[in-house]
Amino acid sequence: MGQYRQFLVLFTDVNPHSAALRRALALAHVSAAAVHVLGLFEPAVEHLLREERLNEADAQRQYEQFRERLAGLIERHRASGIPLTYDSVYADDLRSQAIDYITELQPDMVIKDSEAVPALARVFGTPLDCALMRATKGLTHFVPKAATALPKRILVAVDTALSANSDAQVAFNLALIQSARALALQCDARLDLLSAYNLAGVFASDINLAQAWIDEMRNALQATFDTLADSEGVPLERRHFKEGAPVQVIREQVRALDIDAVVMGVVQPKGLDKLLGDTTERIVSKPPCSVLAVHPHVIETWEP
C-alpha cells in the first residue's frame, strides 16, 4: 500500500517542463496516489504597475489563456493512467487563496517548483515558497528544475541541540524521520541522517577551560544524536554529525553525499530570526536539491 493518497501541485505559471509535476506524477505512479493540479493566475506585474490597470475584459482574456494552457498540459498527461484532476483560480491575493485552497483540500503533500530568492529580497518580504511552508500544516515539497523524477538519496536534517522543551523536540525529530522514511520507501531511496552543531561562539578567558566545555557540549549533543539514530535503526555509515553553521553543513553534505532531497523541519521565525531567516527558509530560498519541509503540526497526527 502506498504512503500517500493525493498530491497537490501548485502552478503560478503553466510550465510544460515543470519538475514539480514530473515529481508528483512519478510519486503517484509508485504510490497509486492521485494528483490534483492548481493553477494560480495573477495578472502580469508589469500591467499592475501601469497608471491604468488592466480592465476586466483584458484580465479575463489573460485568465482564459492561462486556463487553456493548463488544460492542454493536463491532457498531455492523461495517458499515464494516474488519476489526474486540475483547477484554476483567479488570484486577487495569491498567497492567501493558495493557503485557503490547501487548507480545504488537505493533500498528503503540496509540491511546487522551486523559486530561488536573493537573500536581500528575503529581508524586505516573505517569498511565496516560505509563506506556503509556514502556513501548510503538513508537507511542502519544493523541486528544482534539474531534479530527477524520483529522489534516490534522501537526507533528513534533525536538531539535537539542548532544548528547554526536549520532549517536543524529540517528537518532531521522530516525525521528520518518519516523513523522510515514507518518501524513501516510495522511491526505493537511501536515507541518511544529519545533525549540525555550531559551538563557534564559545569563548573563555582560559582556553583550556573553554576547550573542556566545548568537548563536553559536543559529547552531549552527539549522545543525543546517537540515541535518536539507534532508536530509528540508522546504520553507522549513514549517520553524519557535523560541526558548522547548519546551512553551510547541509549544503556541503548535499554535495558530498550526492543528495537528491533534503527533509527539514519548518520553524516559525521570531524576532531577529525573521530578518535573518531560519535554516529551512534559507535552504528553500536557494535550494541545493529538492526540499521536503515538514511543519511541526505533523506531530499532532503522527503515529509512532
Describe the structure.
The structure is a single chain. The protein is globular. Residues 46-51 and 270-277 have low confidence and may be disordered. The two termini are 18 Å apart. It has a 10-stranded mixed beta sheet with strand order 3-2-1-4-5-10-9-6-7-8, sandwiched between helices. The longest helix has 25 residues, at 207-231. It is built from 11 helices and 10 strands. By secondary structure, it is of the alpha/beta class. Helix 9 (246-256) packs across helix 11 (279-285).
* Mean of all residue-level pLDDT scores: 87
**Sheet with most strands: strand arrangement:** 3-2-1-4-5-10-9-6-7-8
Q: What is the end-to-end distance? A: 18 Å
DSSP strand content: 15-25%
Q: Would you tell me the structural class of the helices and strands?
A: alpha/beta
> Major sheet, described briefly?
10 strands, mixed
Which percent bin holds the helix content?
40-55%
Number of continuous helical runs: 11
Shape: globular
Tell me the number of strands.
10
* Computed Rg: 21 Å
Q: Tell me the series of helices and strands, N- to C-terminal.
A: EHEHHEHEHHEEHEHEHEHHE
- Unreliable stretches, pLDDT < 50, 5 or more residues? 46-51, 270-277
